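A quick aside before the break. I want you to see a complete sequence-to-structure record at least once, exactly as it would be stored in a machine-readable document. Don't worry about memorizing anything.
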Amino acid sequence: MPFTRALVHWKLRSRRLELGKRTLVMGVVNITPDSFSDGGNFLEPDAAVRRGLELIEQGADLIDLGAESTRPGAIAGDGNTAQVSAEEEQRRLLPVIEGILKARTEAVISVDTYKASTAKATLSVGAEIVNDVSGFAWDRDMAMVCADAKCGVVLMHTRGLPDEWRGQQKLAADDLMGAVCGGLSQSMQKAIEAGVAGESIVLDPGYGFGKKFDENYVLLARQAELLEIGRPLLAGVSRKSFLGHTLSDLFGGKQAPVEARETASIAALVAAILHGASIVRVHDVRPAVEAARIADAVLLNASTLREA
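That is the input. The structure line, written in tokens, reads:
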């Protein structure tokens, strides 16, 4: 079947971004000591600002800042047991947002948080997007904060909690596509009922977030089905553990280490674009920008773009 991306304008807090004609690349900066990919590298504000500006120079269209790891085991209990307090999260994020925007006023900044108070604080100093891995499920005030700010939102599908993801057998063996489609639809309905504009919403299938290793490939192969919900898709496959698991036979039966997953990340990124993603979230920007250009050329020449 042909894969299609709608041509739409994503409404953010102070501007609009065109989606669908060209894949947008979201560069990740983790302001944490313990993220699975680059924990500790950019914990200091100056280092994080430099990294953000470097990613913009490499071609990133958006910068996604996170100050709390959501790797397996990072958050326990009912989702309210945070490893990093809202105060600490904001202490890490605010100077980085301010530093990037001081140097590049046109920068589009997304904040990766599930805490309403952090979302409110970061939006007040210039963030344009709230990227909530819980899809507005872990903080009941988040939807209202985003509605009041009229910001862009990324709603991600998550099954279970990070403390459950280490044991793959604990994950429910439900209808994967039904669960993802249903969960994203529920998150979007919650957002709209709170007053978030539909044109402000982008959906994320949540690769690696409560999915068994092989389920991520099912999701990737059938990702275009999620376009039926009616909103653009963001795919975050960069350096994920399911890629390392697939490469294990090349590494003596052990998962490929994070630093050895870049080629696999590019392969998954291209698949995600060809299956309908309008935005890709990555750690290594320049190769992603180049790969996205090729995937976009394939889509363009297949004449799969359509007006929304």
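Two observations worth writing down. The domain at 6-307 is CATH 3.20.20.20 (TIM Barrel). The chain has nine helices and eleven strands. We'll return to this after the break.
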